[in-house]
Automatic annotation (TrEMBL), chain A:
Name of this protein: Protein translocase subunit SecD
Residue stretches making up the Protein export membrane protein SecD/SecF C-terminal domain: 372-542
Localisation per UniProt entry: Cell membrane
Alphabetical list of InterPro entries matching this protein: Acrflvin-R, SecD, SecD/SecF_arch_bac, SecD_1st, SecD_SecF_C, SecD_SecF_C_bact, SecDF_P1_head
Record keywords, A-Z: Cell membrane, Membrane, Protein transport, Translocation, Transmembrane, Transmembrane helix, Transport
Family per record: Belongs to the SecD/SecF family. SecD subfamily.
Keyword DNA repair tagged: no
GO terms of molecular function: protein-transporting ATPase activity
Domain (SecDF P1 head subdomain): residue spans on this chain: 261-370
Oligomer and partners: Forms a complex with SecF. Part of the essential Sec protein translocation apparatus which comprises SecA, SecYEG and auxiliary proteins SecDF-YajC and YidC.
Membrane topology annotation: Multi-pass membrane protein
UniProtKB/TrEMBL annotation, chain B:
Natural source organism: Psychromarinibacter sediminicola
Gene3D superfamilies attached to this UniProt entry: Multidrug efflux transporter AcrB transmembrane domain (1.20.1640.10)
GO cellular component terms, A-Z: plasma membrane
GO molecular function: protein-transporting ATPase activity
Membrane-spanning ranges: 21-45, 143-163, 170-192, 198-219, 250-268, 274-301
Entry protein name: Protein-export membrane protein SecF
Record keywords: Cell membrane, Membrane, Protein transport, Translocation, Transmembrane, Transmembrane helix, Transport
Function according to Swiss-Prot or TrEMBL: Part of the Sec protein translocase complex. Interacts with the SecYEG preprotein conducting channel. SecDF uses the proton motive force (PMF) to complete protein translocation after the ATP-dependent function of SecA.
Compartments reported by the entry: Cell membrane
First-listed, main subcellular location of the protein, grouped into a coarse class: membrane
SUBUNIT field: Forms a complex with SecD. Part of the essential Sec protein translocation apparatus which comprises SecA, SecYEG and auxiliary proteins SecDF-YajC and YidC.
């Protein structure tokens, strides 16, 4: 007969309670947001009494994850950028030219004079005056090839060398292009992320999309234009000799000198010589490392010409300070301990491991590796978002109340039980949205409203079935049992098909549409759960207590 | 007293006018396709590139003046529509300006947008621009492709699932019904020239889901009754099944429509097109599950010997007990 074991009841209502617990912070949105901001500020910059107080507005033992609001609800800017990865091929080929030239010069007797020819971007064409020496020339140039550094491209070389008449044609191999594209994208992402983080807005989305695109969504920023300016500016890295270090912005740094503030040390300014010794374009790599004393440092490497300049300068200036400057801010100003020949060096300072890693990222990040074109730009004002939230809220409440009344009128006591389930259902949707950190968009709100309408479906199926069974079955308890049993296959089939479409929407859609797919999908899960388990448990508990001879559905 | 939208016992013959109802559906489908071909959809920038600027002002919108101000900039095709909504304040006047994708540019440049904004500000100094969206032709081409693939994929997946759970005839009936719904929705968007953007695709897919939801419930009962009444003619079994599920069909459509209408009226103009598509879809979806899906199933016929899969059919999920 009708009975649900205690452990099942505990599990069912436990899950409901858990869902509601996670949903609850959303009721106190601004307060929890304040708490979260304060907590992350304390983590990043240390505790202050104000931050402690702000963090205290919400008890730390309660869940504090919130439903993220999408751009269309919060306002902000959205950009879809395409990285011109071909720019880098061109650069790489230009980088190869001196090497190819030097290698061919060594076999001048056989190949004759060499001259670089104009060619399409990303291809290096070199003409030799003695075509009969082509075999030797190709061999020499091929010897310059390096293995591709990537998992998928392992085993192949980075350049492809072919002879066409009296011309040597050098270009990147497909494997190297793929590896280069990946690096370019990775680097662009890093730079953009760093630049957006600088503005300190909450939860920016910076994602790679497909082969060569980057999606950037920043809530709270004024316009897409502003965002474009922010990420479009080149990160300029330079190395300057330090004239002096001061504790206040100097009025007059002196002729051909500049004054930049320090990035980390507050209130510290550096007066530097205006002409840099070397600039970031000549840096080829930077990696976090440890110095001989085991403290964190950053190693870097210049290209040959940068290495020469750097070596010469450091040899002449042992003991003095030189500053590493990024976009008019001094990242660090270490002391030159010894001459640094060979184009590589190590920056030591009072770094933590994290700081050294970050500095390496900054150094590598430098300027954007390739240009970006913007394929999609959207700006949504915060007022429009606020209006949308307001309208969505009202519509939700009205829809909710109307459905509650309608169910109550149609099914009486059973309708009220279904209404309880519906309320729990909405709570659980918000709980799940918060728990998985999903983003709520305007279509997402529509998805919730749609769920309010459709969630009762499973209960309606069961109730209608119980009604039918009451006509034939022996007694109300049997009717309830049969009602649930027989309605189940329809409930599952109907919801699985809708869930399939929600999944496809999620996989194919983007932005707001994806938000809709998420709420629709979660709504299906919770509504089936509440109808099949929660309402049933409620009905069984009620039935056990009352033992009515007849029921009216 | 209980609210009853459908009498407790119904015994309506849903197939008496099968030719008329099915014919009407066919006519509507053909008309929708014709409308789509003749008038076309009012595609939003998501699908054809360009820029939309939403304007808001305290003084009334004069579309003519706006147009004159922008004509001088020579930006090609410009459309200006005033937006009305019951949720607006009395002195809130909103319009949407749409500019076509500019030759040789992926997305409209900041200068162009600034020019447009300046020109409009001259007409109306109180004007503000709550949203500016710009999509390049490259992306819009891809979006349209993805959208079509998504709809086809959804239909295909559903066809497969129903075939797996029922018989192929059910599957064809269900898919015919949802194609009917999708086409009719495209038809109404063509005739009313409501802007068709990405969100409408989401609505179309939801309609696919909802229409199916409804059809599956009817089919589930047909399957059950086919097992129960082994010798009854298919037509009677189907009529019985539709009658038995009618009350549920109307209740669920009712609650869903209540929610959607609340959103349609109060949800603001930004998602009105989206909600309208869904509301329309629920209405035609409910109609089609009875009059399109069932008619096709009836004409195709189905196997009558369900004795073998009986043991599992219909209750393979039913041993889940709470």
């Amino acid at each position: 007969m009708l009975h649900i074991p205690l452990w099942k009841r505990v599990v069912i209502f436990g899950l409901v309670a858990l869902g509601l617990l996670f949903a609850m912070p959303n009721l106190f949105y601004s307060r929890v947001e304040q708490h979260n901001d304060a907590v992350s500020a304390i983590e990043a910059q240390g505790a202050t009494p104000e931050r402690e107080a702000a963090a205290g507005v919400w008890p730390s033992w309660l869940p504090s994850t919130l439903v993220n609001l999408g751009l269309d609800l919060r306002g902000g800017a959205h950009l879809l950028a395409e990285v011109q990865v071909e720019d880098v091929y061109e650069e790489r080929m230009n980088g190869y030219w001196p090497e190819v030239r030097d290698a061919l010069r060594e076999v001048r007797d056989e190949v004759g004079t060499i001259r670089r020819q104009d060619s399409e971007p990303g291809v290096l064409r070199v003409r030799i005056s003695r075509p009969e020496g082509m075999a030797t020339a190709l061999e020499v140039v091929r010897a310059l090839a390096r293995p591709v550094v990537s998992l998928s491209g392992a085993g192949s070389n980075d350049i492809e060398v072919a002879g066409q008449g009296d011309e040597i044609v050098v270009q990147l191999t497909d494997a190297e292009r793929r590896a280069t594209d990946n690096r370019t994208l990775q680097q662009s992402l890093e730079i953009i992320r760093r630049r957006v983080d600088e503005v300190g807005t909450r939860e920016p989305t910076i994602q790679r999309q497909g082969e060569d695109r980057i999606l950037i969504q920043v809530p709270g920023i004024g316009s897409a234009d502003e965002l474009k300016e922010l990420i479009g500016t080149t990160a300029k890295l330079t190395f300057h000799p330090v004239v002096r270090r001061t504790s206040e912005p100097p009025d007059n740094p002196g002729a051909r000198n500049v004054a930049y503030p320090s990035m980390d040390e507050e209130g510290v300014w550096y007066v530097l010589e205006e002409t840099p010794v070397v600039s970031g374009e000549e840096l080829t790599d930077a990696q976090p490392a440890f110095d001989q004393n085991g403290s964190p440092s950053v190693t870097f490497r210049f290209n040959p010409s940068g290495g020469r300049k750097f070596g010469q300068y450091t040899a002449e200036n042992v003991g003095s300070l030189f500053a590493i400057v990024l976009d008019e801010e001094v990242i660090s100003a270490p002391q030159i301990r010894e001459a640094i020949p060979g184009g590589s060096g190590q920056i030591t300072g009072s770094f933590s491991v994290e700081e050294s890693t970050q500095l390496a990222v900054l150094l590598r990040a430098g300027a954007l590796p390739a240009e970006m074109t913007f394929l999609e730009e959207r700006t949504i004002g915060p007022e429009l978002g606020a209006d949308s939230i307001e309208a969505g809220k009202i519509a939700c409440i009205v829809a909710f109340v109307a459905v509650l009344v309608f169910m109550g009128l149609s099914y009486g006591w059973f309708g009220l039980l279904a209404n309880v389930a519906l309320i729990l259902n909405i709570g659980m949707i918000f709980g799940l949205l918060s728990a998985i950190g999903a983003t709520l968009t305007l279509p997402g709100i529509a998805g919730i409203v749609l769920t309010i309408g459709m969630a009762v479906d499973a209960n309606v199926l069961v109730f209608e079935r119980i009604r039918e069974e009451l006509k034939t079955a022996r007694g109300p308890s049997r009717a309830i049992e049969l009602g649930y049993e027989k309605a189940l296959s329809a409930i599952l089939d109907a919801n699985i098909t809708t869930f399939i479409t929600a999944t496809i929407l999620f996989l194919m859609g983007s932005g707001p549409v994806r938000g809709f797919a998420v709420t629709l999908g979660l709504g299906i899960l919770t509504s089936v759960f509440t109808a099949v388990f929660v309402t049933r448990a409620l009905i069984v508990i009620w039935f056990d207590r009352r033992r009515p001879k007849t029921i009216e559905v | 007293m209980r609210l009853r939208l459908v009498p407790e016992e119904t015994n309506w013959d849903f197939f008496r006018r099968a030719k008329a109802t099915f014919g009407a559906s066919m006519v509507l489908v053909v008309a929708s396709i014709a409308l789509f071909l003749v008038m076309g959809l009012n595609l939003g920038i998501d699908f054809r590139g360009g820029t939309t600027i939403r304007t808001e002002s305290h003084s009334a919108v004069d579309v003519g003046e706006y147009r004159d101000a922008l004509q001088a900039l020579e930006l090609g095709d410009i459309s200006i529509t005033e937006v009305f909504d019951p949720t607006f304040d009395a002195d809130q006047h909103v319009a949407q300006v749409r500019i076509q994708a500019q030759e040789g540019e992926e997305s409209v440049t900041a200068e162009t947008v600034a020019e447009v904004e300046a020109a409009l500000q001259e007409v109306d100094p109180t004007i503000t621009f709550p949203s500016v969206e710009s999509v390049g032709p490259k992306v819009s081409g891809e979006l349209i492709q993805t959208a079509i693939i998504a709809v086809l994929l959804a239909i295909g997946a559903v066809l497969f699932y129903i075939w797996l759970r029922f018989e192929w005839q059910f599957s064809l009936g269900a898919v015919a019904a949802l194609i009917h719904d999708v086409i009719l929705t495209i038809g109404i968007f063509s005739i009313l020239q409501i802007q068709f953007d990405l969100a409408i695709i989401a609505a179309l897919l939801t309609i696919v889901g909802y229409s199916l939801n409804d059809t599956v419930v009817v089919f589930d009962r047909v399957r059950e009754n086919l097992i129960k009444y082994k010798t009854k003619p298919l037509k009677e079994v189907m009529n019985l099944s539709i009658n038995e599920t009618l009350s549920r069909t109307v209740m669920t459509s009712g609650t869903t429509l209540i929610a959607l209408i609340a959103l349609l009226v109060l949800g603001g103009d930004v998602i009105r097109g989206f909600v309208f598509a869904m509301t329309w879809g629920v209405v035609v979806g409910t109609y089609s599950s009875v009059f399109v899906a069932s008619n096709i199933l009836l004409w195709l016929g189905t196997k009558r010997d369900w004795s073998k899969p009986d043991k599992t059919e219909g209750n393979q999920f039913a041993n889940v007990d709470a």
